[in-house]
Trehalose 6-phosphate phosphatase (Mikania micrantha), 342 residues
Amino acid sequence: MATRLYDAIGMKPSSQTESMSKSKHDHVADGGYATTSEPVAVDQNYISWMAKHPSALSSFNRMISGAKGKQIVVFLDYDGTLSPIVSDPECAFMSDQMRAAVRDISNCFPTAIISGRSREKVYEFVKLDSVYYSGSHGLDTIGPALKTNSYDKSYQKRSFDNEGKEFIVFQPAHDFLPAVKKMLTEVKERTQSIPGVAIEDNRFCLSVHYRHVKDEDYGRLEEEVKLMLANHPDFHGTRGKKVLEIRPSIKWNKGDALKYLLESLGFHDSCNVLPIYIGDDRTDEDAFKVLRERGEGYPIIVSSTPRDTMALYSLHNPSEVQSFLTRLSRWGFDNTSVAHHQ
Ligand SMILES: O=P(O)(O)OC[C@H]1O[C@H](O[C@H]2O[C@H](CO)[C@@H](O)[C@H](O)[C@H]2O)[C@H](O)[C@@H](O)[C@@H]1O
């Protein structure tokens, strides 16, 4: 059943586990971190996978040697990257230490968070004004006020913060808003009889959470979502961790949001930029792909299990993400003459 739905919506079900187990590897390759405090069984698959996607902590010195003369720009996913995966999506809080790490990095380098959540919701969790935000899988981005020649102006509007600083909000699926609202009503109606389903309104897209749905009810849920998508070809489905996502069918994803933000920061087709993207989910692969295609920067996957990925490097869990960001901002403060202030 699962395979059929995802064939229909162009995705395959994931077999990955999401548990945040103990760190299975030391980071010693180039004088980095050693995090393991007790021996843990290391499985051979994981070792082979790590050889292909080395730890960004172990590889830090090598990575940073490529930053000479380039502007680092940091892109971060939210759930599973800055906050651990938890059973209630409303409680995916980030720790104060992680917030401090993100604040420090954003004071060093331009930093954006690109999430599947609504932009407002991510801001509520992160609460930092020094960061750019892109919500709804990149369909709602607030970025710098620099001109972006490649993008449709009719989807851009000016916005000002409390201090009068100008930003541009770019919403390429703006025309879909009324339809998304109708989809929200319909998906709630279709799934209300299935215990454990939670629908999250991410403004330009919807999340159908099934973490608390019994195995025997899952097929029914899948069938409802499949039928709904078949009736609304202007929407399509993607999949995340125990979540089915309903998104407008425009060619736009986290990778496009990354490109948009780079251009609005003045780095369109620039060889002087080094983007770093850290994410844990399937939708982050779109951004990893963009970096691989541009042949620039570092895509880093957050995973404690081997996964098919376009990422070059890996981090085990959000706590390693925090260590990486802290290390990068220390390097930034020591090595860049002018810190980035937005
Ligand atoms: O792009 P992201 O920031 O990673 O957002 C992807 C989805 O994240 C959230 O769901 C996931 O995290 C929840 C909290 O840990 C977890 O309960 C859920 O099972 C995960 O799928 C968010 O609630 C979704 O709307 C996002 O699409």
Remarks:
- Residues 103 and 128 are 7 Å apart (CA to CA).
- The chain is about 35% helix and 20% strand.
